[in-house]
Write a structure and sequence with these properties.
Helices cover about 25% and strands about 20% of the residues. With about 140 residues, the chain is α+β, with helices and mostly antiparallel strands. About 25% of the residues have low confidence.
Length: about 140
């Protein structure tokens, strides 16, 4: 697994708009990228600094996103940024983050699934299509 951490300062009072753009435009697009696994968005309490950590199955997929998709994301967010984002990449050497492969089932067969997230955790993949905590229009 591979991770990309991007940190940047936001212009005053722009955290809500940043969050909305991440949830409504960027995250749905990221979910379609090959190898994308999850995204964590962090904010300092005053809302002026944010960091995102994206998780990818392999470095090559993260690099493909960095070369083609990341510049588009920066363009979408540019009006909210107060400075140049700082990017750092990591190999994930240990994690409690686990993805269980989706079980393939034959027609008519069902499996019992526990879709509950641990306390304080919200999965980046909604249980139903279009579900989001942000009000996307």
């Amino acid at each position: 697994m591979f991770a990309r951490k991007v940190a940047v300062l936001l212009k005053p009072n722009s955290l809500q708009e940043f969050t909305n753009l991440m949830e409504c435009e960027i995250l749905p697009w990221l979910r379609k990228q090959e190898g994308f696994m999850d995204l964590i968005v962090l904010a300092v309490r005053d809302g002026r600094e944010v960091a995102t950590i994206s998780f990818w199955d392999h470095q090559v997929n993260a690099e493909a996103y960095s070369a083609s998709g990341y510049p588009e994301v920066l363009e979408i967010l540019q009006r909210l940024l107060d400075g140049v984002p700082y990017l750092k990449t990591f190999d994930v050497v240990s994690s409690t983050f686990q993805r269980v492969p989706v079980l393939q089932r034959s027609e008519g067969e069902t499996f019992a699934e526990d879709r509950s997230d641990p306390p304080g955790y919200r999965s980046a993949t909604p249980a139903s299509e279009g579900e989001s905590s942000a009000s996307c229009r």
